[in-house]
Amino acid sequence: MESTDVLVIGSGIAGLCAAIEAARTGVTVAVASAGKTMSGSSFFPGTWGLGLIGPVDEDDEQDLIDTIQTVGGGVADPELVQTFVHGIPQAIQWLEQDLGVELQRPQSAESAQQKQFIPCFDHKTRMWRGLTRKPLEDACTAQIELLGIRLFPRHELIDLVEDANGKIVGAVLYDRANEHLVPMAAKATIIAAGGTGGLFERSLTSADVLSSSQAIALAHGATLTNIEFMQMMPGFIEPKRNLVFNEKTWRYVHVDQPVDIADDKLDDLLEQRSGYGPFTSRLASRAIDLVIDQAGAEGLALHYDFPREDVPEFVQTFATWLQDEHGIAPTDEMRVAMYAHAANGGIKIDKTAFTGVEGLYACGEATGGMHGADRIGGLSSANGIVFGRIAGASAALAAQKEPEAAPKADIALPQYGIATTDAERLTRSLKHTMSTHCMISRTETGLSEALHELEGLKTEATTLSTQKAQDSEVAALARLQSQIQLAQEMVKAMRARTESLGSHYRAD
Question: Which of 247, 279, 4, 304 is CA-nearest to residue 148?
Fold first, then answer.
């Protein structure tokens, strides 16, 4: 049986920061990820890079704290917000100086003040950094090798393991390459496996974000918070799917099909829509997103009309990325649809990244509380770094307090499974249910129907399950059951919140 001091589930920016921070204390660290190492939303190829924002100085910290609370509709955890904001400057310094990650900056002080650098939903420019994949990958690779962090790519979390006292003492992983279950003993475990986008048909994240870890944590005593606040984001359907639509470019859009918005209002709404990326119910420009949503899977037809001169730096960078990386010219005809994007809610943690379950910590998009109903742009990656480091330090400290060797108790492997073809069919049905009833327009009727359909899928999965199944079938059943459970919890939370708030919109 494999064993380690600290086990990290997930290898996006949060998981890798946690692993590096833990390993620097001298404990042994293993990182398991459902996809390749360095995956998930942090390394999603459908975006040009990650924005990273923070307070300009100490005086700006309180303003950012207050703004997060305001933008979050009052549902963000005040203690987490304070811990978060105070930790951003140190996190950026750690990233640049300790890890050697080269971050992008505005080309000049003048361009840094351009409105295009104002983060989504914010009211002013902040300290802005651009975090691109290659420098981050290079720096993390060097640290992994230097610190001797063991990597388990394509190893999916199937279940957590408790001892007799309810303490988490390891996990059951599924080796997706070799199709067998792998028990892993650990003194402390960190969940950093991403958000809930994997429950939808269209998602602006990679396929290895399975959206099962939150339900696994829930089954072992953790709590979920703010999970109704799922960000929905416009993305390209044509000429290429699964690409993020840059919100700063909305002011340059010409809509190429009739929409239920008066012509004299459309330009003003597009200008307002240029101020933020994900959908929000708070602003009149929600009409743009509702039109896109109504267009369905085919998307809304549009094209860009960029000015010949004075294109802002931020916009030009995006246009260049589209052209160079994906062969899309600004003059091309395009279609845009709504995608599931980032989760603002997830596993509830405290300021030490502790879940309330002994031996279990969490960080990154798998968690909730540090944002709220809406999230300021550039804070998702900052969240991963800040709370990733905190989770790594907390888990390492917990591991150091344990006996010399990792627990060696026998880990019983699950036995029940389901045919993979049945699991795939039921998963498609789950995603269709969530995409039909839980994207933007949510109603009591639709949410009730979603719960009914999910309960039916749960019953069918149980009926189709068999004992003494192959490991691949065991993994398929465990994944499906966790996804159904998380979907049910999300829909219940959406149903309970009868008023519109931020990313949660009740059409009724």
Answer: 4
Burial class (CB in 10 A: 0-12, 13-18, 19+), 12: buried
| pTM beyond 0.85, yes or no | yes
Each residue's pLDDT tens digit, 60-86: 999 999 999 999 999 999 999 999 999
Q: Beta partners for 150?
A: 30
Residue 411 lies in a domain: no
Same domain, 396 and 300: no
Angle, vertex CA 196, rays to CA 103 and CA 137, nearest 5: 25
Helix, strand, coil fractions of the chain, as percent rounded to 5: 40, 20, 35
Collapsed DSSP state (helix, strand, coil) of residue 129: strand
The residue-averaged pLDDT of 273-283 equals 94
Q: Is 269 inside a domain boundary?
A: yes
Mean pLDDT calculated for residue range 435-440: 96
Residue 243: which of 327, 313, 316, 304 has the closest Cα?
Answer: 327
pLDDT at 48 over 90: no
Report residue 108's pLDDT band, with 50, 70 and 90 as the boundaries: confident
